[in-house]
Predict the structure of CHAT domain-containing protein.
Amino acid sequence: MKYFNLLIILLITHAVSAQSKEALQQQFDQQITEIAELAKNGQLHEAIRKGELAKSFAFENFKDSNRNQFNILNKLNFYYKFLNDYDNELATNIEIFKIRNDDLKKEQLTYTNSFKELSEYYLSFENPKAIIPTFKSADENILQQTEQAFQYRFEDERATFLENNILPFINLFHSFAYKTNYRYKSFNHIITNNALLVKGALLNSSKDIIKNLESLNDDIINKKIREYRNLKDFTTFQLSLNEKDRSNQLLTMQGRLIGLESELVLYHRRNFREDFTLKREWRRIQLKEKEIAIEFVRFNYFNEKWIDSTLYVAHLIKKHPNASLEVIPLFEEKQLQHIIKNTSTKGMDNSRGSKAHRINNTTTEDLYNLIIKPLEKHLEGIKTIYFSPDGMLHQIALAALKNTEDKLLTERFNLIQVNSSTSIKRDLKQPRSETALFIGGVDYSYNSDGKPMAKQSTLPGLRSRNSIRGENENWPYLKGTKDEIENLTTLFNLKGKTSNYLTSKAADEKAIKNLSGNSPNILHIATHGFFYENSSDSSTTKTNEYKSSSNPLLRSGLILAGADYAWQNGYNPYEKEDGILTALEISNLDLSQTDLVVLSACETGLGDIRGNEGVYGLQRAFKMAGANMILMSLWEVPDIETAEFMTSFYELWLENNAIRQAFNETQRKMNNLYPNNPDKWAAFVLIE
């Protein structure tokens, strides 16, 4: 069968005899040995001179392989870096990038051709069942190739590999199962395991690299991790600036960062080779009786060719009395978009242009019929629903969906949102609450003698980013946030907990960054949040990267003390920290000691939806930083009711030490207080 060689990466070799190749390789190896000896003896300039000659030799004689070119370029790059020769370091970085990009393009072409061959092979069969053995073999190869690729790459390259090379095959398998009405049970197991593998693969693997390496407590590795974090801080800050204001060393430092990532991946592979696996198995999900896991999955539909259609299905997993799996087709994404587009904004007039997707009584029923009704018969006798959203479902508050009997989903079930069903734990380890830091009552103005002043707004407001907010507008002060954090601090102190709060000018960006490596059990931030959708309108004049960057982690963030100046002017040249804490900056922090992050702000749960990796925004950033659980919002939330929600949640949690129960009971309590206003409470989601 011709397919079995489809996923093997082929190396094209030139017609050079083995004997002459060996001689050339020996000659080159001798040059490398001499260069290394010169460098060891401190003769760096001579090592560089001979290194440049060796580079010419490698490019002339090894055109069929990049290994030797990489070898000498990396040595030269290190020597130039040691001498602070930024120009030549950048030049070698550019050469390394070009070779690497050429390799990645060749790799992608191989996978593209393999997919074309497999899809043509599939379409040639009239009997669908006959293709299943080939699909199973292909799936095994995909898993092996993905695991191998992930061991040698960091997050950006892993994301590219997954999106360009692997997802087309996985979407093909989903399409086959959908087209055959999921009647082949053994194949349903494969697509479910694939869904579990893909969800969060990038988040978990990149986060674990640093965490695992730090556990080695190796001085050399720790030094490289510190350098990595410093370079990330530098490049993150530079990327937040307009291009004209960026340092001329940015490209050089980006090259160093990529080089360090490669080194860290290599260290990780050497030390954790046996522990690394991406394989997931739905049967191992830890469920109890009367519990169900709903793994929502979206995929692009392939039917002889790629169709302009994104489909959603639900993978339903139960454990008792026997492990069982059902895959239920749900809807097309266009149907969900239609409902959201017609969502009412009545009662939210103070939002001043927000584009958040809020809900009303009509849309809750429409959404229920679209998302939950097809699953109803499988929910009989269920008390607890674990659910992992995908795609646009990340923007839907399932708790507020109601059936024809006018009962909310949160009234009927205990709802628990997870990144992936694989993260479900039979016995949840409760978040620690011994130490807490509360941030609120932020003064967003910036005023210093001799400097242009951004005035503080006194307008009442929602805790919102205003997606059409102009650069000359200020962020309104949120009085309720100060009352909120003071009340919560008092509550925690009465319970014998160690807590503190930061407000006004002290609630600044530096204070949060200083928590890195020594963060509290609970980090509660009550302020404005922002998220800007990726704009495709290149003709629009854009004056700051928070609105126009291609990186969604720069288009999402939190507003802290003194932020008005940078928001108005693009950046603040008078301060190292400008008050705008982006998700990209958060992702580089070490918040591994924090069990719960509470973002008592607006739309902190939003972000770009990428592949099956979920939301690229604050949610992802805090997870990358190491936080365990996150409580955040899906749309603009009113100041007073938010404080009420938070107080109730903490009181219940500190009383019974059951965070899931406290969250669900708070939602029900708020629904009883505001039965016709889910806008006041349903925005908040607790993500494990």
Summary: Confidence is low (pLDDT under 50) at residues 1-16, 344-357, 454-472, 537-542. Residues 111 and 554 are 31 Å apart (CA to CA). The longest strand covers residues 306-318. The two ends are 45 Å apart (CA to CA).
